[in-house]
Amino acid sequence: MPNTKQINELKVILLDRKEKLLKNILGSRENIDLLKGQDVKDDLDYAEVVSDSFTEGMIANHHVKELEEIELALKKVEDRSYGICDMCGVVIPLGRLKAKPYAKYCTECRTAFEAEQAKGK
């Protein structure tokens, strides 16, 4: 299990990423608003605005999802359950947490989870 110092280091990483995501989400929303306000002269302009708006929306949605995962990880830090696999209850290796500080699953459970997700598609 990561020690207190390691958890605090990971918490700082989570908080920094959270701040960046919030700025990115705000920026995407502002960009979408700017795109909506553009003067569309023809079908090509309209298609470009729609495409750009869609792209910005997809980026913002991805950031919102990551932000939710970070918020959950921060709650786990506070309730001292951080670093424990949600599926099997084993300690998530420190290397995995350093690579993905908001990881909910150990490597084995993540692989199983992804396999189940792929079957459902």
UniProtKB/TrEMBL annotation:
This is Molecular chaperone DnaK suppressor DksA. Signal peptide: none annotated. Gene3D superfamilies: DksA, coiled-coil domain. Pfam families: zf-dskA_traR. Residues 80-114 form the Zinc finger DksA/TraR C4-type domain. A zinc finger (dksA C4-type) spans 85-109. Keywords: Metal-binding, Zinc, Zinc-finger.
